[in-house]
Amino acid sequence: MQWTEVSVITSSEAVEAVSNILMDYGASGVSIEDAKDFQHLKPGKYGQYGEIIDPKDVPHLSKGAIVSAYYPDSRHIAQRTAEISAKVQKLADFGLQSAPAEVKLTPVADENWKTAWEKYYHPFSVTRYLTVVPSWDDYQPKSALEQIIRLDPGMAFGTGTHPTTQLSLQALEMVLRGGESLMDVGTGSGVLSIAAKLMGADDVFAYDVDDIAVASAKKNINLNPRAADIQISANNLLTGIHKQVDLVVANILAEIIVPLVPQAFANLKPGGHFLMSGIIKDKYALVTDALKAHGFKINQSLKMADWYAIIAKKPSEED
């Protein structure tokens, strides 16, 4: 399969907004090179083998940022480049200087996928106890409490570095106590399902409408032996699914969360929780209105940059 890398050369302040634009066109995640990340770094153990390196000696952008996403040719993304460019330039109307706002397309063959991602993807501490590690990295836990999720991004995203995934994992850590049943809707790389198993969830069911994501998630599950019994299959949200579980989690766009709300309510036990992320600031009210309209109680909202996650509860007789 042929893939296309879409890279937007922009400013540091526009990174989140540009990321959202690319995700609106079907990307499930982005990679970011940002000059700002190097501004305040001091010499430290940045080498491959833990050696001390001065950040100024590490190849990096001297100014601005590059936000990149990958799309299969089936998305015909090349035909929509002008639309993406126009939306990036229009960010100036909202007070975000996105210049130079250049959009570049680069073909990426299947066999070059891993190489394309290795330069961006490194071990990443998502929470106090969870670290996401690429499958090719020989990372070792720093303490007995550190849980390691090994992933190969493959053709699906959700590696733990994007704010939406971080918020999802933090929400899971807040709610899970052990022994729960869980549905992961739009599983992508499978990272949330795997994390749930590491946190003590019992029965985990993962769904994604994309066969590529299902295959990627299965591969990642096999990299994490403790997650071996996750049940994963292709499905359009929770259409046709009738199970009573303790938690439903979804890290997807707000417009897709809205039709999922009544399905989640129907599949949750009384007192069960619905954890959702992928909600940009402008869509927050859209989601909360849908939750309230279908009987959910909103327990908590989490925020990172311009992204939100919401923890909602299906009322029980005691509520």
Properties at a glance:
29% strand, seven-stranded mixed β-sheet, Alpha-Beta Plaits, ribonucleoprotein, Ribosomal_L11_MeTrfase_PrmA, 16 strands, four-stranded antiparallel β-sheet, 319 residues, alpha/beta, 8 helices, Rossmann fold
Could you describe the 3D structure shown?
Belongs to the methyltransferase superfamily. PrmA family. Keywords: Cytoplasm, Methyltransferase, Ribonucleoprotein, Ribosomal protein, S-adenosyl-L-methionine, Transferase. Its EC number is 2.1.1.-. There is one protein chain. The chain is an alpha/beta fold and 319 residues long. The protein folds into 2 domains: 2-118, 2-Layer Sandwich (Alpha-Beta Plaits); 124-313, Vaccinia Virus protein VP39 (Rossmann fold), CATH 3.40.50. The protein has helices at residues 15-24, 81-90, 113-118, 163-175, 191-198, 211-222, 254-267, 284-293; strands at residues 2-10, 31-34, 44-45, 52-53, 65-72, 102-109, 124-125, 130-134, 147-151, 182-185, 204-208, 231-234, 245-251, 268-280, 297-304, 307-313. The strands form 4 sheets. A 7-stranded mixed β-sheet has the order 12-11-10-13-14-16-15, sandwiched between helices. The protein has a 4-stranded antiparallel β-sheet with strand order 2-5-1-6. Helix 4 (163-175) runs parallel beside helix 5 (191-198) and helix 7 (254-267) runs parallel beside helix 8 (284-293). The model is unreliable at 40-55 (pLDDT under 50).
